[in-house]
Amino acid sequence: MKIGIIEDDRLLNQAIALALRKAGYETVCAHTRREALALMGNEEELILLDIGLPDGNGISLYQELGGRREIPAIFLTARDEERDMLAAFDTGADDYVVKPFSMKVLLKRIEAVLKRNGGTERLSYRELILYPARKQVFMAGQEIRLTAKEYQLLEYLMKNQGQVLTKENILEQVWGLDGQFVVDNTVSVTINRLRKKIEPDAGQPAYIKNVFGLGYRIGDR
Description:
By secondary structure, this protein is an alpha/beta fold. It contains 8 helices and 13 strands.
């Protein structure tokens, strides 16, 4: 999922891009109205837009970009005057964030806007992020390549965070009828392969935990 960032403060632009990439998003960055019109295409599913740009007004720019296609937007600005907020919302803005802001708060607002606009489902736990529609997995901003069964197993664990899943549960949900014909250690072998790819230290797993005598779990109860 690609997010456009239009912010003339280069350090802030860079910081936002870094936070988004770490969260598993792709980014395209612009610092001016001219750059935004040249760089923003049909792939962005959301734009973060500063109202005050050096060569134009962010609200007018959003109207220009919106003339190409409908796209959700969150406005970023140091202003907190009511008239600016109303003007932004009148143009179709989905949210409005006043600087300075927390990156964690911004990420939550992005998730909320994408959800309201039918954005891609996103499962996350700590630095592990999974996009079911795209079958993509990111750990600390880096995409992780998984086999089909490794991905299906991880998705099943992520969709049931905090729950203990037995080997029988996993065989039934991930392997289906094939689970009747796999060897006894199939689940543990696949779990170990998965850990080597996503765990910072596979010997001391922080994500996929063994629950002694019961099964496996991602996340806290």
